[in-house]
């Protein structure tokens, strides 16, 4: 049988498998919350259930129409994404490659019910393209056998592109994300990593990884050029959580840069979608009303928001402590209006909460899932990973140290995400 990617390239519809339930267990979350959701944490009970499998057919390439992402046959699709990080961090490669083969991780993502992956990278893996420590890809020894360059050292971009190939061969869409400049955990207060460039304050001298706007765009071209013929590479999430120094980034400045980078990438492949995050750590897309991102090709812009419990900039009460009405009002103001007014699609590219939730975590998550269900938009969960590059447990992760089906954390988060992923659209 031909690999799936060859089958896709013959322009047949792509069939993605969305798992509607876990193989052995689902979690039933009993929300015992009062009006503001702060009086108790959920009681979690496990029950056995038979899996129900649903399919979603779509045909690349994609474009946008109003609030929807549309496939080549005019069918709206909703992204149910997972973030798989690591190429943006100190090991320079996606996490888990020391434990499982990349093909096995791709299959696990698909079987958990996700149809797409947000795959972050750091500019450092492009500008330096470091040689990879064999230990961090111990379960992927086949990567060392390069028939083109026998004996050549394995570098970060080599691994990144092979991971993309594994994901798309499993039938998953990939959105490549420029996450950070220096490869490290995001996001701190290092001024060198606050935006897509750091030369405006002397970063070319002060920063470990100096970067100009032109350098940022060249890096994008180097990352994406090998992917132009892969139809399941959906596009580019141009920069993670643009914020400036102490939240000083203006939307107009970021929109200008996003347009420049988008035009460069669309020159490589005019079918790609350009994902443009909001400012204030991707919370705020309100500026897109007066100053939309406009490209030479229509139907290419998808806006992206991030929503966590600590979000809610400009308020003394973060989302962990809001009523649903207060939470929803901010969502409508920041990005929901783009959907309601049929301006553009919105992909909520990062949401997440820990496996052992506090009252505030529970309140935020309950409100978020309700709002995502009501507006029926695309989303991405942070994250798949078991641990951070430091070895610290990733409490937001959905897998354990085995990076396999047996180690999946079958809790309230996965149950909610699987329901969101299989629900029919409610908003039009």
Automatic annotation (TrEMBL):
It comes from the Eukaryota. Keywords: Glycosidase, Hydrolase. The keyword rRNA processing does not apply. Pfam families: Cellulase (PF00150). GO terms for biological process: polysaccharide catabolic process. GO terms for molecular function: hydrolase activity, hydrolyzing O-glycosyl compounds. Residues 95-386 form the Glycoside hydrolase family domain. Gene3D superfamilies: Glycosidases (3.20.20.80). InterPro entries: GH, Glyco_hydro_5. The keyword Electron transport does not apply. Belongs to the glycosyl hydrolase 5 (cellulase A) family. This is Glycoside hydrolase family 5 domain-containing protein. It comes from Penicillium canariense.
């Amino acid at each position: 049988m031909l690999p799936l990617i060859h089958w896709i390239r013959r322009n047949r519809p792509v069939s993605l498998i969305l798992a509607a339930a876990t193989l052995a267990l689902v979690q039933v979350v009993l929300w015992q919350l009062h009006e503001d959701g702060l009086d108790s944490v959920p009681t979690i009970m496990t029950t056995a259930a038979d899996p129900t499998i649903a399919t979603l057919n779509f045909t690349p390439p994609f474009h946008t129409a109003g609030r929807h992402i549309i496939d080549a046959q005019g069918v709206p699709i909703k992204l149910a994404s997972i973030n798989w990080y690591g190429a943006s961090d100190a090991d320079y490669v996606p996490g888990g490659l020391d434990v499982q083969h990349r093909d096995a991780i791709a299959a696990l993502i698909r079987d958990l019910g996700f149809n797409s992956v947000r795959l972050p990278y750091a500019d450092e893996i492009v500008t330096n393209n470091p040689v990879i420590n064999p230990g961090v890809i111990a379960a992927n020894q086949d990567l060392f056998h390069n028939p083109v360059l026998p004996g050549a050292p394995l570098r970060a971009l080599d691994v990144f592109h092979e991971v993309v190939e594994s994901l798309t061969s499993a039938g998953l869409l990939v959105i490549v994300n420029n996450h950070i400049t220096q490869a490290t955990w995001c996001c701190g207060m290092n001024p060198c990593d606050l935006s897509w460039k750091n030369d405006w304050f002397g970063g070319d001298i002060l920063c470990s990884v100096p970067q100009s706007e032109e350098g940022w765009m060249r890096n994008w071209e180097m990352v994406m050029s090998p992917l132009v013929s892969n139809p399941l590479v959906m596009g580019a999430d141009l920069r993670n959580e643009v914020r400036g120094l102490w939240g000083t980034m203006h939307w107009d400045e970021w929109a200008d840069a996003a347009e420049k980078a988008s035009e460069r990438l669309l020159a490589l492949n005019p079918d790609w979608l350009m994902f443009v995050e909001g400012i204030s750590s991707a919370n705020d897309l309100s500026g897109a009303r007066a100053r939309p991102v406009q490209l030479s090709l229509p139907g290419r812009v998808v806006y992206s928001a991030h929503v966590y419990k600590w979000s809610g900039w400009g308020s003394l009460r973060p989302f962990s402590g809001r009523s649903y009405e207060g939470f929803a009002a901010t969502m409508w103001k920041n990005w929901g209006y783009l959907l309601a007014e049929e301006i553009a699609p919105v992909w909520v590219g990062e949401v997440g909460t820990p496996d052992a939730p506090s009252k505030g975590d529970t309140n935020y998550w309950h409100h978020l899932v309700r709002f995502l269900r009501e507006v029926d938009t695309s989303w991405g969960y942070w994250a798949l990973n078991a641990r951070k590059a430091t070895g610290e447990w990733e409490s937001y992760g959905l897998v354990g140290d085995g990076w396999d089906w047996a180690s999946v954390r079958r809790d309230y988060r996965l149950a909610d995400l699987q329901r969101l992923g299989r629900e029919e659209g409610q908003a039009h």
